Amino acid sequence: MPKGTNQKFKLYRLAKIMLERTDDEHYITMPEIIDALGEYDITADRKSIYSDLHDLEVLGIEVEGEKVGNRYHYHVVSRTFELPELKLLVDAIHHAISENKKIRFQYFQWNVKKEMELRHNGAWYHISPWGLSWDDENYYLVGYDSDGGKIKHYRVDKMLHIQMTDEKREGKECFKKLDMADYARKSFGMYGGKEQKVKLRVANDLAGVIIDRFGKNVMMIPEDEAHFTVNVDVHVSNQFLGWIISLGEGVKIISPDEVVDQMKKEIERLARQYLHE
């Protein structure tokens, strides 16, 4: 499905639609939700909306689905977290950037009981915010971690109690060298990893996949009638290796040896997990 031009506001618009158009007596169907998002030039499929409705619950907007005939009708049953507060998640970060201040926040993850669990025992993260990135239907804060001395990113919807501090931002020199769009391309699913230049051997019929991922400026060098090679800068993570595996026989990592070895170890791990039980 082609992306609309306002995808980065998808969760905010969905919250607006649900809060303004539904309540205990007013419902909306999935096709109506998709059409309503379309009014804002936002495209969406059912699967992504199910995930977004769950994210709204995390933010305090509980949505209930009730089966009527062969369709489900959705409506807001709890709105402890109002729309202006949802927008505040992003606005607070923008404000800190404009004021050249650090922010602090707590960060959570989900446990097996589907409960919010604070990371690092509830410790506060002190980060210099430098930008926001939209990747795979999620907002990410990209900031500088002074303690670690490096750029990191965080899912905005998993950040709690965001506060602007009196400390000046740090890491300006790092971000002068950073291309935000390029950073997102290199980070598969915004997972970190050592940045390396990786050479791939690719089947010609996957040229579109490579261009979609790395942009039209990527140099594709013909190798034979059926393949080309390409050198790309990526953050080598398990997610990157998984992406390569998902493309099947059409893509092979050629170099560096370090990354080839990482792929071999991942393949061995998969074999142990599925073939030697």
Chart the SSEs and their pairings.
Blueprint: H1 10-21, E1 28-29, H2 30-38, H3 46-58, E2 61-68, E3 71-79, H4 83-98, E4 101-110, E5 116-118, E6 125-135, E7 138-145, E8 150-155, E9 159-168, H5 172-176, H6 180-186, E10 194-203, H7 207-214, E11 220-222, E12 227-236, H8 238-246, E13 251-255, H9 257-275
Structure description:
- The chain is α+β, with helices and mostly antiparallel strands and 277 residues long.
- Helices cover 35% and strands 34% of the residues.
- It is built from nine helices and 13 strands.
- The strands form three sheets. Strands 4, 5, 6, 7, 8 and 9 form a six-stranded antiparallel β-sheet that branches. It has a four-stranded antiparallel β-sheet with strand order 11-12-10-13, covered by helices on one side.
- The mean pLDDT is 81.
The tally of strands reads 13
What share of the residues lie within helices? 25-40%
Order of helices and strands: HEHHEEHEEEEEEHHEHEEHEH
The residue-averaged pLDDT reads 81
Describe the main β-sheet briefly: 6 strands, antiparallel
Strand content bin? 25-35%
| CA gyration radius, whole angstroms | 22 Å
Quaternary form = single chain
Note the overall shape: globular
* Helix-strand category: alpha+beta
| Low-pLDDT regions | none
Q: What is the count of helical runs?
A: 9
Query: How far do the termini sit from each other?
Result: 39 Å
Supply database-style keywords:
277 residues, 6-stranded antiparallel beta sheet, 4-stranded antiparallel beta sheet, 35% helix
Short summary of the structure?
By secondary structure, the protein is an alpha+beta fold. It has helices at residues 10-21, 30-38, 46-58, 83-98, 172-176, 180-186, 207-214, 238-246, 257-275; strands spanning 28-29, 61-68, 71-79, 101-110, 116-118, 125-135, 138-145, 150-155, 159-168, 194-203, 220-222, 227-236, 251-255.
